[in-house]
Amino acid sequence: MGQPRPLSGGIQAGASLNALHPFSASPAADRVHLRLMETSDLHVHVFPYDYYSDRPIDSAGLARTAALIATLRAEAANTLLFDNGDFLQGNPMGDYIAHERGLRPGEMHPMIAAMNAVGYDAATLGNHDFNYGLDFLLTALDGARFPVVSANLLPGPLAPPGLAALPRYTLLDRTVRDGAGQPHPLRIGVIGFLPPPIAIWDRRHLHGRAEGGDIVAAARALVPRMRADGADLVVALAHSGIGEPDHVDRQENACLPLAGIEGIDAILSGHQHMTLPGPDFAGIPGVDAEAGTICGKPAVMPGFWGSHLGVVDLLLERGTAGWRVAEHRSAVHPIAHRKPGRGVVPLVSSNPEVITAAAPAHAETLAYTRRAVGRTEVPLHSYFSLVTNDASVKIVADAQRWYLAEMLKGTRHEGLPLLSAAAPFKAGGHGGPDYYTDVPVGDIAIRNVADLYLYPNTVRAVRVTGARLRGWLERSAALFNRIEPGQPDQILLNPEAPCYNFDVICGVEYRIDLSRPPRFGPGGRLLDPTAGRISGLSWQGQPVTDDMEFVVATNSFRASGGGGFPGTGVDTVAFEAPDANRDVLLRYIAEHGTVAPRADATWRFEDLPGTTVLFDTSPAALDHLDELRDLALEPAENGPDGFLRLRIAL
């Protein structure tokens, strides 16, 4: 391991810590204040810039988070900085580097260059870091000046050279100073975990090459080994959120059972794009959302895109049995906040070293995303995509259907009814009131295509029965709360249900009865197999029966089982296309030249006379109210966190 090196920190030996620690008593001799800092789900957001809207923003960017890191480093004698994964994919810069320019061996990825400039001590991998393939991932990681660990990433028989060389954990030897300024060697064990379903979500890249093992099983096997190797402290970088309280095999969000593993001292989590401490996890047994603990252990989750810096302060006390955590505090520090009527107000400025590290790639990305590929005669926005038929969703569905109609010619699936499933990817939620697609009438640039389809999925076709088709739609309907008929102003959307799981299936017609209980929960868990919200399901004017067969165009994530939709999974895949959904959309627009997608009457809410619901959207939606023809709505009040609240009469 070599000689211990000093930890990053701004306090010189012998300096007073009295004003700089968060504990009930000042650190003294043999008591050490150690500050752990975490970013997660950066998704290539280096610059405070929205490439989709082509404008600077104040609510994202590692360059801004780096300013917080510098401040908090300067306030503590001993600090460590970690990243929790999902840093290589997620915005047009990531796509440009991976698909347009490429990344040659020895060349520094701009995200890695930025992370090197900040000075990370270690990182782990998230599921989206595999979206561009293992070879790209390994080439990018070659430039990292910090260890990247993944305990439950399991190489397969076709794994590329270098995958097995990724450590499952690392031991960081550091010199820390106690409250009296005396140095002590400290060995910090860092272990990382990724969501086990990666082999399903990225099957085209990972089949036979790698898969995700169970998080809790990996921790049980490796944490005792880390302790035996001399780890005084074990930090878990869990690219996994807070889900079921009990251990489930290959659990996606496993932080609750993970916290029960003896020997883990702190959990730095992510993946869910939420914050802990904070109200996002209030009321969950085993979680103290105010204090930031999971099963009594310090934990943190720092939002996404660099929106927050997660901080866990530990007071370590040395006794005869070694170091132990005597006290702990968790916090999340935002880079901006929203003031009523003033929008987002920045709290920090960009770090110039981080800006410099990625400046060439930023300029190239802007030039790339500004290229025009076609025109639209109608606005393509997602302000109402969760309450009515929407042109921004329809154009994606049209492109998928157009592509697969040709690809399925001559196959045994030709002649079956061809449907197309698409969902809004940007429709507010945890992304905030500015997180919407908005492509105005006129030229469609590459950045607009990326705005319409965010992810690097590939096109898939699945073959389903009428019964499974109905179940697919029931799963989508988990987006909505149950509504009491005849009651006013009930909240429409379930905040736990992400918009990208609201699939609209074009080619059939149906209604959603909000007065009925949902069949599925927001995460896909089956609640009641007899429950049904979907009514009037028909194809070409005829009722859909359980034994009818359809082909549904969708994406690789959904077709492989992502989201837990009936009718999906590898056993139903009828066709695996080599092309990405976004590329198909781009070709569709370029070939047609000018597009004017019609938001057909695919679905609507069942009438509930005397009933109103409240729906939150962007204030920018006010400019588009005149486009609605089949929905009775009016502004109700200012919504929470800068949203516009609309009242809808059902």
UniProtKB/TrEMBL annotation:
<keyword id="KW-0547">Nucleotide-binding</keyword>
<dbReference type="InterPro" id="IPR004843">
    <property type="entry name" value="Calcineurin-like_PHP"/>
</dbReference>
<dbReference type="InterPro" id="IPR008334">
    <property type="entry name" value="5'-Nucleotdase_C"/>
</dbReference>
<dbReference type="InterPro" id="IPR006179">
    <property type="entry name" value="5_nucleotidase/apyrase"/>
</dbReference>
<dbReference type="InterPro" id="IPR041827">
    <property type="entry name" value="CpdB_N"/>
</dbReference>
<dbReference type="InterPro" id="IPR036907">
    <property type="entry name" value="5'-Nucleotdase_C_sf"/>
</dbReference>
<keyword id="KW-0479">Metal-binding</keyword>
<comment type="similarity">
    <text>Belongs to the 5'-nucleotidase family.</text>
</comment>
<dbReference type="Pfam" id="PF00149">
    <property type="entry name" value="Metallophos"/>
</dbReference>
<protein>
    <submittedName>
        <fullName>2',3'-cyclic-nucleotide 2'-phosphodiesterase</fullName>
    </submittedName>
</protein>
<dbReference type="InterPro" id="IPR029052">
    <property type="entry name" value="Metallo-depent_PP-like"/>
</dbReference>
<keyword id="KW-0732">Signal</keyword>
<keyword id="KW-0378">Hydrolase</keyword>
<feature type="domain" description="5'-Nucleotidase C-terminal">
    <location>
        <begin position="387"/>
        <end position="566"/>
    </location>
</feature>
<dbReference type="Pfam" id="PF02872">
    <property type="entry name" value="5_nucleotid_C"/>
</dbReference>
<feature type="domain" description="Calcineurin-like phosphoesterase">
    <location>
        <begin position="35"/>
        <end position="273"/>
    </location>
</feature>
